[in-house]
Amino acid sequence: MIFGRSERGKPPVEPVTLKILVAGGFGVGKTTLVGAVSEIRPLRTEELLTEAGRPVDDISGVEGKHTTTVAMDFGRITVRENLVLYLFGTPGQERFWFMWDELSEGALGAVVLADTRRLEDCFAAIDYFERRSIPFVVGVNCFEGAARYPIETVRQALDLDDGVPLLLCDARDRESVKEVLIGLVRHAMAYTAGRRRAATV
C-alpha cells in the first residue's frame, strides 16, 4: 500500500486521521521530535533568533539555539494503510499561545516535552491541556549533559496526576519518539473510554 493508493484489485482505503500536538517550552526539542518521525519533509516555520527577540526569548540553558518556531511544525506518519497521524508542533513562546486553541481543535491528545534544566517552561502546556481535558503525556527529552533524575522525582516536580504517563525520550531518535507517540495513543484511548463510562453512570 502506498499512501493514497490501494493495491491492484482492492478498493481504495480512506484512512482514519488522528491529530497529535507536540507542545512544551522554548527550545525543548519540538521541531526535532516532529522531524525525527515524519515520513514527509516536515513543514517548518523557523526563523533566526535576533537581538530584537532577546528580551522575550530566554535562551538560558539552550544557548546553542539559533532559530525559533514562529507558527508551527507539521509532520505525518502512516501507521498502517487505514491510520495516519498528523503531528503539529506548537510554538513555545508565550506570545504565540493564541495559536494553541486553533491547533488543539479536534486533537486526539498531546505530547508535552520537558527539559530537566528548565522544567518550569512546560508548566503552561501542562496547565493548558489539563484545563481543557485534552489527554497528554509528558516526554522528558534527555539532552546530553543534562542531569538525570528518577521518573518519580520529575513527576513530583511537575505535580502531575498519577494517571498522566511520564516517559523518558530522545527527540532525535525515531524509535524513542515512536514509543512516546504509542504511549500517547494508548493513554488517549483509555482516557476517552473512562470519560464515556463516567458519562453513562
UniProtKB/TrEMBL annotation:
UniProt entry keywords in alphabetical sequence: GTP-binding, Hydrolase, Nucleotide-binding
Keyword Lyase set for record: no
Protein family membership: Belongs to the GPN-loop GTPase family.
Lineage: Bacteria, Bacillati, Actinomycetota, Actinomycetes, Kitasatosporales
Keyword Nucleotide-binding: yes
Gene3D superfamilies named in the record: P-loop containing nucleotide triphosphate hydrolases (3.40.50.300)
InterPro entries xrefs: Gliding_Motility_GTPase, Gpn, P-loop_NTPase
Name this polypeptide is given: ATP/GTP-binding protein
